[in-house]
Specification:
CATH superfamily of the largest domain: NAD(P)-binding Rossmann-like Domain
Order of helices and strands: EHEHEHEHEHEEHEEHEEHEHHH
Largest sheet: 7 strands, parallel
Organism: Streptomyces aquilus
Distance between the termini: 43 Å
Number of helices: 11
Helix content: 40-55%
Mean pLDDT: 95
Low-confidence stretches: none
Shape: globular
Number of strands: 12
Protein name: SDR family oxidoreductase
GO molecular function: aldehyde dehydrogenase (NAD+) activity
Radius of gyration: 18 Å
């Protein structure tokens, strides 16, 4: 299958591209800079120069391929306005790619996030939030899933808040960056709330399996660790960096503060059973031992 991939040079995307190529697929990858073009070519894929805001380029990429995996996002969490702009940009991109796929029965796998469900572990049938700081992403994803009734084999792979590799990535990576900047390895509240996690190389396999196998309109959980307490995550970061570990105000985390403070464990039992996905790489707490002191 020839696959159009957005976000193909990031932590997750580069792993997805490598996994696709290693399993007999070819890849056309969106590349927004000269450095990204070089990275795509070095990986063995074909670059398509453009950004997530270039809707005509996105449509052209879809038209040239047999299926789509969408991973790109601005990742600017510096302010509520920046986050909102990134969500709007992604929503427009998803709509444009979806329109190009109508009636084709081609697969469209979009990235999403595992939801938080009060009082229990979330599962694949739980809805994603459509309000709050990232509600716009939830609404865009629901629209993607709705394409199942319009001749698109749409599916979502829900990532946990931390997708990691060599101690980098996700919410845990943000905790590390903030710890380096502030001199404290902090956590919100009492730190007993739980975050799920997955290694990027394991997540990449699930994106491919969803592309190859997923039934239209379905959601899948890329969860290896059901939920580590955030204070345990902060403790490893603090030990690796030689910094004190303590509770800090939720406002420390900017517009993501309310999400950081949520208890959000998630299960992938249905995903593993149905698609045959089995994570094999180090857990988050093991992988954080790779943080440079």
């Amino acid at each position: 299958m020839r696959v159009f991939v957005t976000g193909g040079t990031g932590l997750i995307g580069s792993a997805v591209v490598a996994d696709l190529l290693g399993n007999g697929h070819t890849v056309l990858a969106l590349a927004r800079s000269d450095a990204s073009v070089r990275a795509v070519e070095a990986a063995g894929a074909e670059p398509l120069r453009g950004s997530l805001s270039d809707l005509e380029t996105l449509r052209a990429g879809v038209a040239r391929t047999d299926g789509v995996i969408h991973l790109a996002f601005s990742n600017d969490f510096s302010s509520p306005d920046a986050l909102a702009q990134g969500i709007r940009e992604e929503g427009a991109a998803l709509a444009a790619m979806g329109e190009e796929l109508l009636g084709s029965d081609r697969p469209f796998v979009a990235v999403s996030g595992t939801p938080s469900v009060p009082g229990r572990v979330s599962v694949e049938t739980d809805p994603v939030p459509t309000d709050g700081p990232v509600g716009g992403r939830g609404r865009a994803i629901m629209a993607v899933l709705g394409l199942a009734s319009r001749g698109v084999r749409s599916a979502t792979v829900r990532l946990p808040r931390t997708v990691h590799n060599e101690g980098k990535g996700g919410f845990a990576g943000l905790l590390t960056d903030i710890a380096r900047r502030t001199g404290v390895s902090g956590y919100p509240g009492d730190g007993t709330h739980r975050w799920p996690a997955v290694h990027a190389l394991d997540a990449a396999v699930l994106f491919r399996l969803a592309l190859e196998q997923a039934v239209a309109g379905t959601s899948w959980h890329a969860v290896a660790d059901e939920g580590d307490q955030v204070r345990d995550i902060a403790a490893v970061i603090g030990r690796r960096l030689g910094l004190p570990v303590k509770s800090v105000p939720t406002e420390t985390y900017g517009p993501l503060g309310p999400i950081f403070a949520n208890d959000q464990p998630a299960s992938s039992a249905h995903t593993r059973r149905t698609l045959g996905w089995e994570p094999k790489h180090p857990s988050l707490l093991e992988d954080l031992e790779n943080i440079d002191s």
